[in-house]
Design a protein that fits this description.
The chain has a single domain, classed as Fumarylacetoacetase-like, C-terminal domain (Fumarylacetoacetate hydrolase, domain 2, Alpha-Beta Complex), CATH 3.90.850.10. 12% of the residues lie in helices and 33% in strands. It contains four helices and 14 strands. The longest helix is centred in the middle third of the chain and has 14 residues. The two termini are 23 Å apart.
Length: 273
C-alpha cells in the first residue's frame, strides 16, 4: 500500500473551471477573494473505508470506466510533509519536490455529490512524472524557472493539449499557497462538493507524507471540450524554460526522445485504456 495522502487544490488557475464546465459546481463555495482556490479535495486516502483507499496510480496507463466522459487535467503536484500539532491540526507543510501530474476527472457525472467521486475512478486514474527536488519554495527557488505544457497524440495526429504556462502563473503559489492550505486543511467543512479535511487526516492516522496537486491549467481552445478515447496518449511535461524551448520539448515528446536531464524535466506519459 502506498503510504501517503493524495489531495488536490481546485480552482487555482484562471478559467480552468469554466473550460471544464465545472464552474457552476462551486457556485455555493465562498472564497476570501476572487482569485482564491475553491478548496481541497481528497483523491487517495490509504486507510479510508470507501473508494478513496483504492490505489489509483499508474504512470503508464489511464483506465476509463465504460460509458464515461473523462478529461485529463495537466497540473503540477508537490510532494509534501504535513506536520500536525497535538490536536491533530496541520501546523506546517514542507514542500520536498514537484512533478508533472495528471488529475484526470470524470465529467458530467450527475451521480457525483463530491469532487472526490470524480477523481478516484479506476486503478489507473492518476499518474505522476519523475520528481524534481526543491531547493526553496519561493520566487528565488527552482520552481520559478519551470513551466508546464501537455500534449495529445491520437488517431488524427499530435497536438498541444494544454496551454504552456509558467508555474508562477498559478493564482496561489509559494507561501501564499502554503498558508492557504494550512488554513483550509484545518477549517474546510463538509459542504456541497467539498469534504471535512480534518476528519480525513484523522481517519488516515495522521499520515505525514502527501502528494498535493495544485490545480489544473487551461486547455488549448480546441481541446477544452475534448474527451479522452481509448488509444489516446497524454503527455504532461514540467520543464526548465531557461534551458529548453517549448519547440524542443514538443520534439522530445513527439519523437519519444529520452529525457536528457531529469533534474530539468518531469514528464508523464499515459496511454488511455
Amino acid at each position: 500500500m502506498r503510504d501517503f495522502l493524495g489531495f488536490g487544490v481546485v480552482g487555482n488557475f484562471a478559467f480552468h473551471l469554466e473550460q471544464a464546465g465545472e464552474a457552476s459546481t462551486f457556485a455555493l463555495v465562498k472564497t476570501t477573494c476572487d482569485n482564491a482556490p475553491k478548496g481541497i479535495f481528497p483523491f487517495y486516502v490509504p486507510n479510508a473505508h470507501n473508494f478513496l483507499s483504492n490505489d489509483c496510480f499508474d504512470n503508464n496507463y489511464l483506465i476509463m470506466p465504460e460509458k464515461t466522459l473523462v478529461q485529463a487535467e495537466p497540473e503540477v503536484a508537490l510532494r509534501c510533509e504535513l506536520e500536525y500539532d497535538e490536536d491533530g491540526k496541520v501546523k506546517d507543510i514542507k514542500v520536498k519536490s514537484f512533478m508533472a501530474f495528471n488529475d484526470a476527472s470524470i465529467r458530467r457525472d450527475t451521480t457525483a455529490i463530491k469532487v472526490s467521486q470524480k477523481k478516484n475512478f479506476s486503478n489507473a486514474s492518476k499518474g505522476f512524472g519523475n520528481e524534481i527536488l526543491i531547493d526553496k519554495f519561493d520566487s528565488n527557488g527552482i520552481c520559478q524557472n519551470f513551466s508546464i505544457v501537455s500534449f495529445l497524440k491520437n488517431q488524427n495526429g499530435f497536438f498541444r493539449y494544454g496551454e504552456c504556462a509558467k508555474l508562477s502563473e498559478y493564482n496561489y503559489f509559494y507561501s501564499t499557497l502554503i498558508e492557504w492550505m494550512k488554513v483550509t486543511f484545518n477549517t474546510q467543512k463538509d459542504y456541497t462538493v467539498l469534504e471535512n479535511l480534518s476528519s480525513i487526516t484523522k481517519q488516515s492516522g495522521y499520515i505525514k507524507e502527501a502528494i498535493i496537486s495544485v490545480g489544473a491549467t487551461r486547455y488549448e481552445k480546441a481541446y477544452e471540450s475534448y474527451f479522452l478515447n481509448h488509444g489516446d496518449e497524454i503527455s504532461i511535461v514540467v520543464f526548465n524554460h531557461n534551458k529548453y524551448s517549448l519547440e524542443l520539448i514538443e520534439s522530445f515528446v513527439q519523437n519519444d526522445t529520452q529525457i536528457p536531464d531529469k533534474s530539468d524535466i518531469s514528464i508523464l506519459k499515459q496511454v488511455v485504456k
